[in-house]
Description:
Layout: H1 10-14, E1 17-20, E2 23-26, E3 30-31, E4 34-39, E5 42-45, H2 46-53, E6 63-66, E7 79-82, H3 84-93, H4 99-113, H5 118-126, H6 131-138, H7 142-150
Antiparallel strand pairs: 1-2, 3-4, 4-5, 6-7
Helix pairs in contact: 6-7
Amino acid sequence: xxxxxxTHTVDSLKQHCVEIGDCWEWQRYIANNTPQVFHDGKMQPxxxxxxxxxxxxxxxxxxxxxxCDNFRCVNPAHTVIHSHAQHMKAMxxxxxxxxxxxxxxxxxxxxxxxxxxxxxxxxxxxxxxPSREIGAMYGVSHGLVGKIRNGTAWRMMTSHPFxxxxx
Length: 167
């Protein structure tokens, strides 16, 4: 099944919005908290389409984001253009790359979904057997055994300055 190429206008896009206060909330498809529309043969962010239709320049690595913090809002008056660096900085402030948050998620995964216990991990670290043999003993891959030994998997958080807060 092939899609017909749809080229939107400002008016055709605005028909799919509901005005709530000053915001124009998008009522159609949203992916990863970004309103999307099929335009010129591909899915595109609605804010980017609005911005280009209104004649503002958008570089390929730029992001059109709402300054009102309403992810459904596509009002061009609420849209600011961010560079990739600005966008990543805003995402980190939103808590998506907080190291303490990530450590808590990893600790939860270890205790609720892990095949190995902390005692088994300590045994793996202390063992001098080859990784393949240890992996077969515990039912894990030899790659995981190697990662445990070199500290990239099952990091010991006891040396972390906030280790006491993560329990």
